[in-house]
Amino acid sequence: MSSTPAHRTDGSTEFDTSLQFATVARRKLFESVQFLGFWTAIALPFVYLPLLYQGSLSPTSSSFAVIVVLNLVAVFVGHGYDRP
Question: What is the largest CA-CA distance in the chain?
């Protein structure tokens, strides 16, 4: 038995290559989204905590609620970033 794939005339090796490309692209996209979620979760408190301190943002406002929910979503999305 040889370890090289047999080239068929039905184009299955082209399909395999396309499938491998799609798998790698999906993994890279997932890693990028995790990266963005992780760093967004870290950076957002540096934005809204000073605004709360200055009084520019009220803890009872809807914009504050949106920022907190966005931060929670970012924590959820980025929680697995840089894990083996």
Answer: 74
pLDDT tens per residue, range 48-58: 888 888 888 88
Cα(53)–Cα(35) distance, rounded to whole angstroms?
A: 28
> Residue 57 belongs to what domain range?
33-84
Q: Is residue 47 part of a domain?
A: yes
- Cα gap 51→66, rounded to integer Å: 14
Does residue 9 lie within any of the structural domains?
A: no
**Domains contained in the chain, number:** 1
pTM for the model stands at 0.70
Mean pLDDT of the chain, nearest integer: 84
Over its C-alpha atoms, the chain yields an Rg (Å, rounded) of 22
